[in-house]
């Protein structure tokens, strides 16, 4: 949604997207962090 408050408009507009083409996929990436070097991250 886009809110144009700089121009004084408070109307919320949703984005108009085209219909999806092809299968819906979910992507993920694993990130390995060395625990001994970065113990505060876990």
From TrEMBL:
Organism: Muntiacus reevesi
Protein name per the record: Uncharacterized protein
GO MF term set: RNA binding
InterPro entries: KH_dom_type_1_sf (IPR036612)
